[in-house]
Amino acid sequence: xTPERPRGKDAIPEVAPSVEPSTPQTEPSAQLYAALDxxxxxCRMLIARPRGSQFDVVDSFSxxxxxxxxxxxxxxxxxxxxxxxxxALRVCQKKIETHGLxxxxxxxxxxCRRAKNAKEFIRQVRxxxxxxxxxxxxxxxxxxxxxxxxxxxxPRTEQLLVVDIGGGSTELVWIDLSSVAPEFRARxxxxxxxxxxxxxxxxxxxxxSVPLGVATLKDQFADVEDDAARFALMSWFFEENLASFSPYxxxxxxxxxxxxGTSGTVTTVAASFLGLKRYDRAKVxxxxxxxxxxxxxIREYLSLxxxxxxxxxxxxxxxxxxxxxxxxxxxxxxxxxxxxxxxVADRGLREGLLYAQMSADGVLAEGPYx
Length: 370
Description:
Layout: E1 33-38, E2 42-51, E3 54-64, H1 71-74, H2 79-99, E4 103-108, H3 110-114, H4 118-129, E5 134-135, H5 138-148, E6 159-165, E7 170-176, H6 185-190, E8 203-210, H7 214-220, H8 227-240, H9 246-249, E9 257-262, H10 264-274, H11 281-284, E10 288-290, H12 291-311, H13 323-336, E11 341-345, H14 349-361
Parallel strand pairs: 1-4, 4-5, 6-9, 9-11
Antiparallel strand pairs: 1-2, 2-3, 6-7, 7-8, 10-11
Helix pairs in contact: 2-4, 5-14, 7-13, 8-13, 10-12, 10-13, 12-13
């Protein structure tokens, strides 16, 4: 399957990027917003209240559901994976009901985009939980990931690459900020909520959605028994799928170029580098890692082997089987582009959904976004 791109163009985080969750509220509030992200591997939701240019998390939920198990081979969502997912969505529905929510976006991504029986599954979810899931297209998924990372944009950044490594796909967006005044660059990213043709001079040079994420890439090479060989093949194969993406062939100076990575893979690698046996978002979000530091962690993962990774507390049992496919994607990205540093984002689609809803409603103050 070829990467999708625009027509006409050649330790897992539990909280959002504002403050720690407060005690859940039980009274209905028009100021509460919900964002649910149903991906290939996980079902995650945030409920938040706007505060200034950020938001406070009121409640959250995250569950590994493995919705995409078997999808690569059959092209369909399995009965077992749909059952697991609906059980998780029932929990989300109860939280939405408890908080009396009126403003929400509940989205599904790559697994539901690809599955032949996705419409049937969406109808089943509505029938059994009352929730209306919306299958969003790759461009919107990419755009929302970019918006979530606005607070991490360095004022010195002129060329920005945002990478979102998901379970079923990886979205990459290259943005030119050179014509935006440094103090307004984060704000210009935030204003992309209305589309990739943003205001204030933020220019999307190119974007791509590669149908390879941690789960789908792993499935592609499941028959390769040797651990190191499988990793090398996954990294090479992912790089092959990026050949038509503009920055791959561009000659960009290292100065002024920033890569922001958002995903469970990126935060897990960061937590491993820091030696965290218990995940700490405050230490991970916004961390800057060099290519050498990332490579060191990946070599350590390889030396551990499958069994060692399974028992390593820094990786966690929910991620140990997927970390090497994610690491292969990450290593390929760092090998290709003209920077030796990566900014780690403990934020993603849910946060982007919240920012977009709140920005559209005019309930967020204008910057600063740090």
